[in-house]
Design brief:
2 domains, 12 helices, 420 residues, nine-stranded mixed beta sheet, Rossmann fold, 19 strands, four-stranded mixed beta sheet, Ribosomal Protein S5, domain 2, alpha/beta, disordered C terminus
Length: 420
């Protein structure tokens, strides 16, 4: 053009060759093993189990959960138990608040430093100082980039703040743990890109009003996602549960109708959970159906199968079904336990020392489910005498007969094992 199109001045333009970059590909065998492959064991067995042995140096871990579930307590305990120096940067709490929590849970140790900061630039300076083996940012939704438009916690701010922090952690080989909030539907707040940017995504679940907390890994670039860690929230912090199955069924009233045990498979573990049901008469045109800890649509299908194939009159009754202990059961193997619990509650006949599993079809047939041996082993370890394995019975009615519920559920003239 010969002149600048903005100021109209001549002689101000110079020709430049396009820069193609200095990075050249090399053979994968020539890449030296990175020091970041080493793991930082925290000594908290349940936490290290979920991560596959500890926190990988230079990795970025996102811990997400509902408010009050124990995210800040967990990361403070991890920092205190770490064999190395740690920094906790909080955008939610003051230094005094962090100190009070540390005092309560026994995390007052010299190798943990704390800072109340929301400016990403200041946090990056702390990360790149090289003083800390682990940096905790609590939480990613509370920090911001001053030069970036948008309010704190907005998608643009979360994306930019995470990108800069992750870049700083990677370049300095500093392990980082970020906490994150979740939305009403349980998904991690902020852009979905956030989950793709980090190396590990851990969710901490559990009823905030109950003691048990379940730590699950939904993404792990450095290990398996098949492990689950189980903690109990106590006044002095989170403590690992040595025998989760015994804790989950503690206090069960075996003589009460509507209670059935179910050995679920969670990751590589088998956990025995109590499934409870309550059936009460209702004068409403549409009786209530309430489900907690189980897929509601699947429970409704089981209720329909009970009414159609076992003649259980549920149309004028309210039905409540719950998986106790705050656990979320998503596998179809829980179908038979739900069906037996509902039939037991409707008939008033208790199923005392029985664990059940199996998938219930819409035609009333029963199907086997995976991991039968692991379920049996956990049931046997707890000394539970009765087992109703859905793969051993062709039809739902046969399982009801085995559980001693036939007299209350099968219409006169209809026999077990009959195709309906």
């Amino acid at each position: 053009m010969g002149f600048c199109p903005q100021c109209r001045t001549t002689g101000t333009l110079s020709e430049q060759k396009a820069h193609a970059g200095d990075t050249l590909p090399i053979a994968i065998t020539e890449v030296a093993p990175a020091a970041g492959g080493q793991r930082l064991a925290t000594g908290i067995d349940e936490f290290d189990r979920v991560l596959g042995g500890g926190i990988v140096a230079g990795s970025v871990t996102l811990v997400a959960g509902e408010p009050g579930v124990g995210k800040s307590t967990l990361v403070l305990e991890v920092a205190a138990a770490l064999d190395g120096t740690a920094l906790i940067v909080s955008g939610e709490e003051s230094l005094n608040q962090i100190r009070m929590r540390a005092d309560r849970i026994g995390a007052l140790v010299e190798h943990v430093s704390i800072a109340a900061e929301r400016d990403v630039t200041a946090i990056l300076a702390m990360i790149e100082s090289g003083r800390f083996d682990l940096v905790v940012v609590d939480s990613i939704q509370t920090v911001s980039v001053p030069t970036r438009a948008g309010g704190t916690g907005g998608p643009a701010q979360v994306r930019e703040a995470a990108a800069q922090l992750i870049s700083g952690a990677k370049s300095s080989e500093t392990a980082m743990v970020m906490t994150g909030h979740v939305t009403k539907d349980g998904s991690i707040a902020g852009p979905k890109l956030l989950e793709h940017m980090v190396d590990v995504v851990i969710t901490i679940e559990g009823d905030p009003h109950r003691g048990l907390r379940f730590l699950r890994c939904v993404k792990n670039r450095h290990g398996s996602v098949d492990e689950v860690g189980i903690f109990e929230m106590l006044p002095d912090g989170l403590r690992a549960v040595a025998d989760p199955s015994a804790t989950l069924i503690a206090g069960r009233d075996a003589a009460a109708p509507g209670s059935v045990l179910f050995p679920t498979i969670d990751g590589l573990r088998s956990l025995v959970v109590e499934v409870q049901a309550l059936v009460v008469p209702s004068a409403a045109a549409q009786p209530r159906r309430s489900v907690k800890g189980l897929p509601a649509a699947r429970v409704h299908q089981i209720l329909a199968a009970l009414e159609r194939h076992a003649d259980l009159p549920l149309g004028r009754h309210e039905v409540y079904v719950s998986a106790m202990g705050g656990l979320q059961l998503s596998e179809p193997a829980a179908d038979l336990a739900v069906a037996l619990a509902v039939a037991s509650a409707a008939s008033g006949i208790a199923i005392t020392d029985v664990a059940a599993w199996g998938e219930v079809g819409l035609t009333g047939e029963l199907r086997g489910v995976p991991h039968r041996q692991r379920r049996r082993a956990e049931v046997a370890r707890l000394g539970i005498g009765g087992i109703i394995d859905g793969s051993k019975y062709p039809h739902l009615v046969d399982a009801l007969v085995e559980a001693g519920l036939a007299a209350a559920t099968i219409r006169p003239g209809r026999t077990a094992g009959t195709a309906h």
